[in-house]
Design brief:
The chain is of the alpha+beta class and 312 residues long. It is 21% helix and 27% strand. The protein has 7 helices and 16 strands. The strands form 3 sheets. Strands 1, 2, 3, 4, 5, 6 and 7 form a 7-stranded mixed beta sheet that branches. Strands 11, 12, 13, 14, 15 and 16 form a 6-stranded mixed beta sheet that branches. α6 crosses α7 (300-309). The protein starts with 24 loop residues before the first helix and ends with a helix. The model has no long low-confidence stretch (mean pLDDT 95). The structure holds zinc ion (ZN). The site of zinc ion has 8 residues, from loops.
Length: 312
């Protein structure tokens, strides 16, 4: 059964995305100037965060008031409406990559640090992680789509950041999300995990791959598992999804029933794959397994392993 509460980091974004307001230029202009509106700046795709007040505490997003905006924008600055919070305040993301070193020089010097989201994911409030994932994926998309894929002309930001418009040929470009299936292959009391060539020693994870055009989730799972480890799968059960801002994927977590057991690995994609018992996974989740580490809790693979290992 699909779960009712999504356990994944970067999911559960608390903002109302207010998509009905994106075409309302008057509303947008007013909200950008509204003293209650808040802006998170991203530099080189790293958001401004405030360090924890005490050791081991959580970071806060370095929200700025709208009055700071004038000092931070330059021509063609990307600003994206993230949404409206529960107190009716608009929240925006702003790309300030035109600054050389904003943590130490310029109007934001001394405010906080610009941090790679993946490195601080475990130190963020759940809701903040989701907001930052949205902000990073959106700004990343703008940075990669400055020119029209149809005619090559420079495109312009539109619809509060949710479209780029080509002034030459009229083509409209929209942010994309790439679906990725990530599968925990199970058979009886064992599950199969693989390790990539660059994984830390003993680290094993669920098998993942992009969904191809014209392919269903179930077909993508079966194809990826067959390609990577030579196993045939039957039933595929959906577990949960995770927005993954590298740059903009949607990880679709599935549990797949294996119909065969013999592993034949594709050495171009993975270095090793093995069957593990439920007890081994339980020990690994507690950091007590000798031959196995599993990914940390912010990875959907961890949640898949946990859901299956703790199944009664
Ligand atoms: Zn064009």
């Amino acid at each position: 059964m699909p779960i009712r509460v999504n356990p994944n980091t970067f999911a559960n974004n608390p903002l109302d995305r207010a998509s009905d307001k994106r075409l309302d230029d008057g509303w947008l202009a007013a909200r950008m100037q509204d003293a209650d509106s808040m802006i998170v700046p991203l530099w080189q795709l790293k958001p401004l965060v405030l360090p924890p007040e005490r050791e081991g505490g959580l970071c806060d997003i370095g929200w700025l008031r709208s009055g700071m905006m004038a000092a931070l924008v330059s021509p063609n600055t990307v600003i994206v409406l993230l949404g409206i919070d529960s107190k009716d305040r608009a929240r925006f993301a702003l790309d300030i990559s035109h600054f050389a070193d904003p943590a130490n020089d310029g109007p934001l010097a001394g405010f906080g640090d610009f941090a790679e989201i993946r490195e601080i994911a475990g130190s963020l409030h759940e809701e903040d992680a989701a907001i930052l994932a949205q902000a990073k994926s959106m700004i990343d998309w703008h940075r990669r789509h400055t020119f029209c894929a149809n005619c090559g002309a420079r495109t312009e930001l539109a619809e509060a950041g949710y479209k780029r418009q080509c002034p030459e040929c009229g083509a409209e470009h929209f942010p994309r999300t790439d679906p990725v299936v990530i599968s925990l292959v199970v058979k009886d009391d064992r599950c199969l995990l693989g390790r990539g060539p660059h994984f830390p020693e003993k680290m094993f994870s669920a098998l993942a791959g992009f969904v191809e055009p014209g392919e269903s989730i179930e077909e993508a799972v079966a194809r990826e598992v067959k390609e990577e480890v030579g196993i045939d799968v039957g039933d595929v059960e959906y577990h949960s999804t995770q927005p993954w801002p590298y740059p903009s994927s949607l990880m679709i977590g599935c549990i797949a029933e294996a119909e065969t057991e013999e592993i034949t690995i594709d050495e171009t994609e993975i270095a090793d794959a093995q069957w593990f018992t439920r007890d081994e996974l339980k020990a690994a989740l507690n950091g007590n397994a000798e031959r196995l580490w599993v990914p940390p809790p912010f990875a959907i693979a961890h949640q898949l392993v946990k859901a299956w290992a703790e199944e009664t």
